[in-house]
Amino acid sequence: MASERAKELAAKQKAELKAAKLAKKNSTNPKDWGWFKQIKETFKVTTQTDPQAKWWMLGAGLAAFAVFAVLSIFLTPFWVWLGFGVAFGVLAALYMLVFKAKQATYKRYETTPGAAEIALGMLNTKAWTHTSPITANKQMDVIHRAVGKPGIVLIGEGSLARLKPMLTSEQKKHEQVAYGVPVTTVIMGDQPGQVPLRKLASYLNKLPKAVRPLQVNEANQRLRALDAARPKLPVPKGPMAMPKGVNKALRGR
Fold it and tell me: Is residue 150 within 8 Å of 209, Cβ to Cβ?
């Protein structure tokens, strides 16, 4: 009897494992995808927005291969250098895909409410934490927050007239719990004095360092209490779900 139960349990576990693998294979959740499918889907989405991206990838790959092909004429064994050419050609094509994917992502979502989350998602997670968005109104004006060594940065996107009082209010709230951590504001946009979506991540990374890592951790703990008291947002969180591996690639990691 015990043997029969063991067989039934083993068969059940095997069926569950098979079902889990099948579900993961057919999943639409990017977190369940392997690296090959992530690259495939990134290429597909990128070329839909920028049809020329595939030619840039081909050109980058061939250029890298050509360099090593020329070296193979003068250096031996030549097949080793040709092998390097193939490897670096593939690598150059992938780097071009990352570059073009980043540009295509910005272009595709630059007019979408909550688009700043795209740029914030490309920040180094070891240096920054971000919350997108922290507040919003019914007109789809939103404010995001990034916390790092420059301090607390509030990023607004939407109507300038509506954002100014929203940012002023949020800045005061954050300063009350910041305890010496500087709170700065940024408005994302293409008008003078604003930061475009495509430049937001680099803009934040170039801000001068103002606090120590310990202060960053303490600020994040206090900000969680501030966020817990907020009402439910009137808009969906974020413009899109980025594939798990793609975010790391776009950050250059």
Answer: yes
For residue 165, say if its preceding peptide bond is cis, omega within 30 degrees of 0: no
Residue of higher predicted confidence among 50 and 112: 50
What global pTM score does this model have? 0.70
Task: Identify the burial level of 60 via C-beta atoms within 10 angstroms of its C-beta, where 0-12 means exposed, 13-18 middle and 19 or more buried.
Answer: buried
Q: Residue 207 and residue 153: Cα distance in Å, rounded?
A: 10
| Cβ atoms of 150 and 184 closer than 8 Å | yes
Burial of 238 (C-beta count, 10 Å sphere; 0-12/13-18/19+)? buried
Domain ranges of the chain: 31-109, 116-250
- Residue 168, pLDDT above cutoff 70: yes
DSSP 132-185: EEEEE-TT--EEEEEEETTEEEEEEES-HHHHHHHHHHHHHHHHHHHTT--EEE
Cα distance between residue 195 and residue 106, in whole Å = 13
